[in-house]
Amino acid sequence: MRFPEGFRFGTATASYQIEGAAKEGGRTPSIWDTFSHTPGKTVNGDTGDVACDSYHRWREDIALLADLGVNSYRFSVAMPRVLPAEDGPVNEEGLDFYERIVDELLVRGIEPTVTLYHWDQPQYLGDKGGWLNRSTAYKLADYAGVVAHRLGDRVRTYTTLNEPWCSSYLSYGATEHAPGLGLGPGAFPAVHHLNLAHGLMAQAVRAEVGDRSDVSVTCNLQLNRGDADAVHRLDLIANRVWLDPMLRGYYPDELFAITKGICDWEFVKDGDLEQIHQPIDVLGVNYYSTSLLAMSDRPQFPQSTAASTAPGASDVDWLPTEGPHTAMGWNIDPDGLYDLLVRVHNDYPEMPLMVTENGMACDDRLVSEVDPSTDETVKAVHDPDRIDYLRRHFEAAGRAMDAGVDLRGYFVWSLLDNFEWAFGYTKRFGIVYMDYETLERTPKDSFKWYRKLIADRAIPQA
């Protein structure tokens, strides 16, 4: 198949995962600075203090994007760089940094796709309860307006939130992500306040740019298989808890039924759902793998395992999935992407979609070898498993388009190997290899494969 003209081919990154310069340019700590500096929270005690040093090397990274040939780049703005103090002045130096990135991307013919919140909440908000505090939603709306005012319609798409499932369930229900409170059902207020923030942020962006830029949100929707009751239960908790209020203006009654006794939902105030239900132009879908579920009679709420952190899911078991698996231990199921895109399209047919993240963690090795065309010794990374993964998932996306899905773009995660949250620097998702000692960047074979796909708008077979 060939992808249509105007299809958005991109890669994606996130500020805390690549920028570094944690104490430069007026930036103040985020909850992830605090979390990663807490002993035992990340593998090897890794932090984002330096990461890929993209704060200083952003021109080098944009040159890689230009070489790759993408027409869009999804990156996030760090709120602690823009509003480093609560109720304090806007940090013009922080805004200048992101404005330079936007301007350089446009010079290179690359459309900026800006994620406004990719988890690096300022610690001053975390100190007041973070997403458990309703006022955080309004602070994020103020911040969104500040960014949209400065960057304006030079940004093709403003994405309000990235993966609110993680920002609530993993961060407040469990302990894997900052702030890691392990509250179990106590995460539901964070769920609602994230939904509210999305609606308020969308309105703030619209007030600045009108219809001259797209407004979006990105969700890591789950495609589960197995027992029908378990699948339905998790669909309510993991998917419809976001999509129904955002796209339809209500929470499903069944969600209240399955959470009865563990959550009273009194934090949903009059008028909230009208605020949440704002028109958006495209829905971002992040997809990596599927899960296999069965019902269980376990009475306790799971406090730690990342797969089972959703409140109300204590009577669902996650079963082992068939291989092969990625370096993250996630199964490889391209059909899951097809099924998910078709399902979302069928349920919300008016909504255009984009795959805003898809990629594979591999145990990549940097090697030195002789280039036969020049007889020079060069560095290389051969990652055939990642190429096969991407090929099969692009094909699944193409089949979904043939089935009628209005798919507007596809962003490979990630441009660079980077700080993979609690896993530190032990997992490599990039199509560019990072030497964390020298900060040298080396395009992998998957980079060259993706470059050919973009140039031909067709999927290379090898």
From TrEMBL:
It is an enzyme of class 3 (hydrolase). Substrate binds at Q17, H118, N162, Y288, W413, E420, W421. The keyword Acetylation does not apply. GO terms for molecular function: beta-glucosidase activity. Its EC number is 3.2.1.21. The active site is at E163 (proton donor), E357 (nucleophile). It catalyses: Hydrolysis of terminal, non-reducing beta-D-glucosyl residues with release of beta-D-glucose. One of its GO terms (biological process) is cellulose catabolic process. Gene3D superfamilies: Glycosidases. It comes from the Bacteria. The keyword Hydrolase applies. InterPro entries: GH, GH_1_N_CS, Glyco_hydro_1, Glyco_hydro_1_beta-glucosidase. Keywords: Carbohydrate metabolism, Cellulose degradation, Glycosidase, Hydrolase, Polysaccharide degradation. Belongs to the glycosyl hydrolase 1 family. This is Beta-glucosidase.
